[in-house]
Amino acid sequence: MAYERTYRGLPVVGGDAVVLADGQGRIRGQQNAAPGVSGVPTTTIPAVSAADAERTVRTRLAAVDGAGPARLVVKVTDGRARLAWESVLTGRTASAASRLHVYVDARTGAVLDGHDLGGTAPGDDFSLAVNPAGGTVTPGGSTTATVATAVTSGSARTVALTATGLPSGVTVSFSPSSVQSGASAMTTVPAAAGTAAGTYSITVAGSGPATHGTT
User: Fold this and answer.
1) Which of 88, 116, 144 is the last residue of a domain?
2) What's the rounded Cα separation, in Å, for the pair 131 and 137?
3) Which of 140, 166, 177, 206 could join 128 via S-S bond, C-beta 3.0 to 4.6 A?
4) CA–CA dist 9, 108 (Å, integer)
5) Inter-residue contact 191 to 172 (CB < 8 Å)
6) Which of 144, 142, 143, 139 is nearest to 192 (CA)?
7) Phi, psi of 96 (to 5 degrees)
8) In the predicted model, what is the mean pLDDT of residues 9-13?
9) Residue 156 and residue 181: Cα distance in Å, rounded?
10) Which contacts of 65-69 are long-range, i.e. CB under 8 A and separated by 24 or more positions?
């Protein structure tokens, strides 16, 4: 079993003390990962604020999505104990999702230690909308609308536009026929002179990293 330790009410992180016990609870061995620790803090009052420590940590990520509340601890690293702020940030590095765990010296503001717990990056995705969502076309005439896309996660990707559910005599064209998510296209809907009167539902879809449609 590993013991959770405190120093003047603060959690101690690192240099774990481990006690080995058998099934009857008899102690068979013990180990201290940091015997003879030096630099034990004489005060638990930080000179660096939690906000300043978080600002230091934020510079280590390309984008920050969230930050948990900083926790004041005693961090043991390389046989030395220091008063530190423990912060966990979620976000992204330049190339991947990140859950960054960092300890900042509460006296000097220097980064003492840290490790990236990793994360799952959301895939590239987009939304699609048509404006106006409906219209009236007389036989032999046409109407137009704007197809707008937006990036909802990840990066912009090519989205190919199509239309289904067309009644006889009605066609749909897009200009351009594909866009980068985040861009818009113009759609034109002409109806031939002999098109039967009625109410029709046409579905406009965009296909890229995913497929989304609107009717």
Assistant:
1) 116
2) 15
3) 206
4) 21
5) no
6) 139
7) -155, 165
8) 85
9) 5
10) 65/90, 65/91, 65/92, 66/90, 66/91
- Considering the domain architecture, whether residues 191 and 109 belong to the same structural domain is answered as no
Residues 26 and 60 in one domain: yes
Do 106 and 141 share a structural domain?
no
Which amino acid appears at position 124 of this protein? D
Tokens of 84: 């530190």
Segment 16-28 mean pLDDT:
61
DSSP state of 197: P
Query: Range of 18's domain?
Result: 5-116
pLDDT at position 13: 82
Token match 């199509």: residue? 162
Distance CA 176, CA 158 (A): 12
Distance CA 73, CA 12 (A): 6
The residue type at 86: E
* Averaged confidence pLDDT in the chain: 82
